[in-house]
Amino acid sequence: MNLHEKMVEIRKLVKALKKDAVGKTGFKDYPYISTDNILENIMDKMNELKVLLVPSLSECSLREFNYINSAGKEKVDFITQGMMGFTWVNAEDPKDREYAPWYFFGQQDEVSKSLGSGLTYSQRYFLKMSFQIATDEDDPDQRDTSGKQPQKPIPQELTNKVYHCEDCGLEVKDTAKKTIAEIVEGSQKYYKKILCQSCVSKRFKASQGAK
Which of 33, 41, 87, 207 could form a disulfide with 54 if both were Cys (CB 3.0 to 4.6 A apart)? Predict the structure, then answer.
């Protein structure tokens, strides 16, 4: 058998997998199929058919994400993202292989957890996509959005006015990620004054150091 024929044989084993793990988003639990569950169901067949799955990592970047949680506390998460790939290999004929480029994203309160969760999550979804494992967790129509409120529009008067930072005196400028209106509205909400993004970051880091 060639690689594609072997993949079809492996897929026959995973069409009826049940959700075996529970995750949490906000205050709601949701079931999902774990990576371990998928691997346990395909590993014996992969060994029998001599099929290998080889992951590779080509690009990786890390950035901080500062935010205010639902309790009103300032928090820092680490966002990891990058480019990786998975290669299916027919061990009986190593030239018979299939490479799939893949992206990964992870967000956690520790750097190592952010990378680990991103890689694990990507591997799980790669395996699900490879074998067409359908579950309602992937269907946007099944998501419960009844408790979500639409984002409040930014007042028109904030979008055209020139603002100056009350800490450094410089004009408030937009950034690659935030508009002037968003910076002004956010600083007024959390610091009760108009601040530029640089001064917001300084205040946030100072508050972290004081803890």
Answer: 87
Whichever domain contains 120, its CATH number is: 3.30.390
Q: What is the rounded CA–CA span in Å between residue 6 and residue 28?
A: 39
The string of pLDDT tens digits covering residues 20-78 is: 666 655 545 666 677 777 888 788 899 999 999 999 998 889 888 888 877 777 888 89
Find the domain containing 199 and state its range: 157-209
The helix/strand count (H/E) of the chain reads as: 6, 5
Rounded to whole angstroms, the maximal C-alpha distance in the chain is 71
Q: Which residue numbers in the chain have pLDDT < 70? A: 15-18, 20-32, 134-160, 208-211
Q: Are residues 41 and 119 in the same domain?
A: yes
